[in-house]
Amino acid sequence: MEVPPFPKPEGLEAAMALQRTLAQRVILSGSLEGKKRLAALDASHKRGKPLVAVALLYHLEKGPLFVAKGLVPEEALFPYVPGFLSFREAPAYLEALKALPEAPEVLLVDGQGIAHPRGLGIASHLGVHLDLPSIGVAKRLLFGRLEGPLPQEAGSAVRLLSPEGRPIGYAYRSRTGVKPLYVSPGHRVGLEEALAFVKRLPTRFRLPEPLRLAHLEAGRALAALD
DNA sequence: GCGACAG
DNA sequence: ATCTTGTCGC
């Protein structure tokens, strides 16, 4: 698919300013009805090696269709700073997306959507950059708090609230007894619609299958480098 | 000053 | 994310 160049900010000040600008372009409405082709994005990295990103094209009815990879040399990587993950990982994701035979209708990203200090987690950043609907699925919380207790039963969810009390996503129990996932809209999708979309993905273990497979592929690709 | 802190 | 030993549980 076609991918616009991704500007690299000089430092955290510039990165923060860019986040504030792009956050204004995030659209928090839209349904994903009828959208069946998604790209699941995950990355893997080891010191002294390039960052490996995987974009796994997945069809809701046909399953996995294609695995594309993107590499960024360690020397070229933005440092990891909580709140600035997209500047580190997005360039590798975009390389992987370039290698897809067709554009996905939805991006499913390992990380936050709008549940972020400035409203622009990596899922939102990629969604705005590519003008695609996107959803963030994170394994840990970065920003916000749960509205109440989250039941142990698979399928239960409670809203994620910003410090001001605005809903920014959900804590979601994908399987009974597992730690919750944190689902937040990235771009061009509503809060409830984002959760509904994730809920209808096949989930054998904690992570929805598309993301779990992307994670496995990224790990394999990293191990295969040497 | 203290705690929190995606991947 | 990775590193890292044993350990608990399905």
Automatic annotation (TrEMBL):
Enzyme nomenclature, EC number: 3.1.21.7
Cellular localisation: Cytoplasm
Broadest EC class assigned to this enzyme: hydrolase
Stored Pfam families: Endonuclease_5
Catalytic activity from the UniProt record: Endonucleolytic cleavage at apurinic or apyrimidinic sites to products with a 5'-phosphate
Site, Interaction with target DNA: residue positions: 80
GO cellular component terms listed in the entry, alphabetical order: cytoplasm
A GO MF label: deoxyribonuclease V activity
CDD domains according to UniProt: Endonuclease_V
Cofactors (names): Mg(2+)
Similarity field: Belongs to the endonuclease V family.
Function: DNA repair enzyme involved in the repair of deaminated bases. Selectively cleaves double-stranded DNA at the second phosphodiester bond 3' to a deoxyinosine leaving behind the intact lesion on the nicked DNA.
Protein's name according to its UniProt entry: Endonuclease V
